[in-house]
Amino acid sequence: MNNRVAVMDLGTNTFHLLIAEHHTENLFTEIRHEYVGVKLGEGGINEGTIKPDAYRRGVDTLVDFGRLIKEYDVQQVKAIATSAMRSASNGPQFMAEVEERAGIRIETISGDREASYIYEGVRASGCIGSQNSLIVDIGGGSVEFILGDDSRILYKQSFEIGAARLMALFHKTDPISTQEVNELNNYLDERLAPLFTELKNHAIQNLIGSSGAFETFAELVELEKGNSFNLKQTPVYHFDAKELNQIIENIVQANHDERAAMKGIIPVRVDMIVVASLLTRYLISRLNINEVVMSAYSLKEGVIAELFGLSKLQGAQAQ
């Protein structure tokens, strides 16, 4: 019997399917990785509903994922839904239809559990050391913050301030206006106050970004230098602060068409990358961060670590 597993990370913007087998040295061997820009939260993220077009895209994508799971003779399946599904009034209906049509049972997890999985995934990438790192995962619906080292979590909390929510609230002109940027920063000051209170008591060696936004930043930096970038070959990337700041500035100053023309920004991120960039810049400035790292491993790799019995999570629970 094979030890093949399938993990689905059903985010607010993107649905991921990762089919993998256990590998003693590298956690897993990737067999197949599919991701689809479903935009489940489009039009309804701040209303607490999945709109009809997004609903249909989501179900159809999971029917396709179900076919692949059968094709690859997977032994264990785990589908994890996060912020958009948590807050959607028609989320239970969506999950029931997916189970009926695709044979996939979706588990909706709390922001606290999501943060734990993210930590495990990032830890598996090897980029957390013995000193404290602040992990930041910018999703479409929520943003998870995890403070810890390679052996424990000191603090974790999920905030409902994901890129889809921020974009709907603040990105109404294009390019985004200075007034909107200021309003966004003031909003973050208010919403992230518990985070900043907690971090006053801890030194932070670096900020680790484990979301698609940071993968985009890394790809744009390398493309700017004329290099290719492959996440499979580079699951951990260390940014030069000046290069990262310049890429963020380029994104913020650009309009939709200019961003769409930037090689390295996939279509599903063309607009949400603006508020994700502003949140990243805000955190770097507010916390006086000198070192920023990208981890391509995140929630789905954390779930794989659990399925393979490799999770070693210990430490504080989220407040």
Task: Describe it.
The chain is an alpha/beta fold and 319 residues long. It has two domains: 4-108, ATPase, nucleotide binding domain (Nucleotidyltransferase, domain 5), CATH 3.30.420; 112-299, 2-Layer Sandwich (Nucleotidyltransferase, domain 5), CATH 3.30.420. Helix content is 43%, strand content 20%. The protein is built from twelve helices and eleven strands. It has helices at 52-71, 83-87, 91-102, 111-125, 163-170, 178-191, 193-199, 212-224, 241-253, 256-260, 272-286, 299-307, and strands at 4-10, 15-23, 27-36, 76-81, 106-108, 133-138, 143-148, 153-159, 206-209, 236-238, 292-295. The strands form two sheets. A six-stranded mixed beta sheet has the order 8-7-6-9-11-10, sandwiched between helices. It has a five-stranded mixed beta sheet with strand order 3-2-1-4-5. The radius of gyration is 19 Å and the shape is globular. The N and C termini lie far apart (42 Å). Mean pLDDT is 94; it is low at 314-319.
Produce a short descriptive summary.
With 319 residues, this protein is an alpha/beta fold. It is built from twelve helices and eleven strands.
